[in-house]
Amino acid sequence: MREILDIQKQLLPDLLDIMKTRYTILHHVLVSGVVGRRTLAASLDMTERVLRGEVDFLKEQGLLETDATGMKISEAGRRLLDALEPLIKDVFGLTEMEERIGKAFGVSQVIVVPGDSDTSGFTKKELGRAGAAALRKAVVKDDVIAVTGGSTMAEVADQMTASSRMRGSWFVPARGGLGESVELQANTIASTMAKRSGGNYRLLHVPDHLGEGAYQSLMQDPQIQEVVDAVRRCRIVVHGIGDAMVMARRRKVDAEMTRSLQEAGALAEAFGYYFDRQGNVVHKMPTVGLRVEDLQNIEVVLGVAGGKSKGEAIASVLRFGRQDILVTDEAAALEILKQASS
Q1: What span, in angstroms and rounded, lies between the C-alpha atoms of 279 and 317?
Q2: Which CATH number is 93-340 given?
Q3: Given a cut of 80, is residue 270 above it in pLDDT?
Q4: Which CATH class is domain 1-88?
Q5: Mean pLDDT over all residues of the chain?
Q6: Pairwise CA distance, residues 133 & 225, whole Å
Q7: Which of 94, 140, 227, 329 could disulfide-link to 89, CB 3.0 to 4.6 Å?
Q8: C-beta neighbour count of 229 within 10 angstroms
Q9: Beta bridge partners of 145
């Protein structure tokens, strides 16, 4: 495959450029669902005149459909995109990135999508789509799936689709989360994933961070204990990865604790734990739900995070050493590889 691509790059470079352009158009339409030509042109940084010619060609091939609401992908277009994905990953150099990250950090499966989700809303949607697809492949009958909160996890939830394999599964929040924006809370994301996939869900109505007294008191409640037991026996956990200081601000951590995190070299946050550059846990609080030690008993740990600004943080969590699947984007992957070689 790669030898053929190298020959094409030398003899027919224009052909590869045209293929990449048409694949990108189809892919944007797939992720968008239904999209107008003007919106698509702006998203692709392409003139409407050029886009019109490409869209007309793709319609003639039966790959796109249009109506009064806009463009959408046809079933033939979906099949073509699935068939082209491995080839396109090689064209963009993403396959090599996936292999290098997997080897450097001991991750079983790495999935890299094109772009930078820091600057492109489309890339963030594609990150969510790839995360949802990875989860669907990992699920088995009657699974228990714990999910964390955050904007990337919300995108994964939005991209979930009905699946017979997920019908008997249970989605549970990995941790409490009251105090955050409702749409970014793990409770909301777990319920959205369940509703979109045809699964079931349980909620955990407790704050994210607790004092020791409050923690011990809540753990005496039978209903809370039942949900926490479900969380801790999950087979899959799906989580995001954040910059430590950004997450500290979002969780309204006080100034003294923020200074403590900075002095400890906190770089990343995941599962409610803070990690330094070497992947060591430098801070944790009593939390109702998943604990970092529970990860040793979880069969599939699936991380979804992207954006150039998160590259160092993602590398930090990968160094912690408990990641089975990573879904990230091209910009973050480049930063992760820099960290791997430093």
Answers
A1: 6
A2: 3.40.50.1360
A3: yes
A4: mainly alpha
A5: 88
A6: 31
A7: 94
A8: 10
A9: 171, 236
